[in-house]
Amino acid sequence: MEEQFINKVKIFIEKGSLIDASMPVLVALSGGADSVALLRVLLELGYDCRAAHCNFHLRGEESNRDECFVTELCRQLNVAFDVKHFDVPAYIRAHGVSMEMACRELRYEWFEELRQVHGCSCIAVAHHNDDNIETFFLNALRGTGITGLTGMKPRNGVVVRPLLCVSCAEILEWLGETGQDYVTDSTNLENDAKRNRLRNIVLPALYKEFDGAKQALLTTIENMRQCNGLYHESIGVMRNIVSDCEGDSIVIDLEILNSFDNRGMLLYEILKPLGFNYEQCNDMLNSAVGRHFFSSSHKATINRDTIDVFLFQSRDENVYLVNLESDKIFEPIALEINHVTDEMFSPDMVDGKCSVAFSNDILQCSEVVLRHWREGDRFKPFGMNGSKLISDLFTDLKLSEKEKNETWLLEADGEIVWVLGYRSSQSFKVPSDSTHYLLFQMDH
Fold it and tell me: 154: cis peptide before it, omega within 30°?
């Protein structure tokens, strides 16, 4: 069993290219059977290991007992060792997270610091295939998607799990054969946590009633991992519904999207990286034109033919004063201002979009500013009678949500006189025989 166990882990590491043997490995060492076995087997396989132990002080003297045990173990094995003490309650108060999440965040943040300081290739943690089955069930009970049914990955960034190929029983048997002792976390025997109830009550009953259930579940997890890979490859092919993509903004073609039977799931896979959840994506498909949806970073707007998604935090809400005495403006957009004093104006000098002309009357305004549009903004388009909502102009121009929110307006004493790049206003119109006026030019 001893050689068989080591060889099984060796093959698993090599097959997944989990560890770079030319660099040290940082081993998360709690002192429990799993982490002790992980350290011992990696040393047996010739890896240069460095151990790290977290003392969260959540189990009284038992926490200090664990620290003493791993300190002595590393001394005996001649393994470099780091330990850190954490104030978990203080972290919970500061960040408003659960105790489990606080410990996880503190642990992995410190592990990553150590990995970089000591030049380690990866952080090795001791999850085994029993842990993977528990994770499968926990995710299923939460109502997960296909990814949640794949369990834990052998590698997740710099975190590797070399023991996913073996069971808890195999670990305990191997430690027994080698005569290696370990400590036991008494809280693992309590059934107040969901994972413990699965581990101590549900799964033992399941294995008792159904022969071969454990291996069947492991096979299912592996099958789901392969299905997940195929699923995401297929999603990549179907992403042609994204008709435009620039930076953090995308435009989704609703006609193509609606041709798919599982359009809600497809939309979710496209928008999930931008922070939208499955329920929001389903709601988008049944929402009226003009409705907005928000993630923590993005805004999605439902239009007649598209869903426009853009980085909501990128919109500049500031108002920028414009000095009309200047020849050049640099912020928030580059503009050239030509003060004409001796040339008769001709409409051919401007296009009314990126270049416009205003009479010198604009110089009498007390405040001229550049800003983005707001709901209810109106202006008097050149060549039209009456006023028009800026939002209606945007609709006529078929601007995306991103383009709308990147468009600047020139406002003089509260009146919008230019929608930069698209339309100028009737206000401050230059008389045809005038030789004194201002020419504005957008600097592309």
Answer: no
The pLDDT of residue 314 is above 60: no
For residue range 359-395, list pLDDT tens digits in order.
888 888 999 899 988 888 888 888 777 888 988 888 8
**Do 306 and 414 have their domain in common?**
no
Residue 241 within a domain: no
H or E element at residue 310:
strand 306-311
CA atoms lying within 13 Å on the CB side of residue 258: 10
232 within some domain: no
Exposure string for 210-246, b = 16+ CB within 10 A, e = fewer: eeeebeebbeebeebbeebeebeeeeeebeebbeeee
β-bridge mates for residue 358, sequence order: 438
Tens of pLDDT, residues 9-32: 999 999 999 999 999 999 999 999
Residue 261, Cβ density class (10 Å: 0-12 exposed, 13-18 middle, ≥19 buried):
exposed
Pick from 257, 280, 314: which residue ends a domain? 314
Number of domains in the chain: 3
3-state secondary structure 234-270: HHHHHHHHEEEEECCEEEEEHHHHCCCCCHHHHHHHH
Q: With a cut of 90, say whether residue 436 has pLDDT above it.
A: no
pLDDT of residue 325 exceeding 80, the answer is yes
Percentage of the chain exceeding pLDDT 90: 46
Structure tokens, 150: 């794949």
CA–CA separation, 421 vs 277, rounded Å? 35
Full residue range of the structural domain in which residue 301 is found: 247-314
Give which of 49, 44, 62, 40 is closest to 19, Cα–Cα: 49
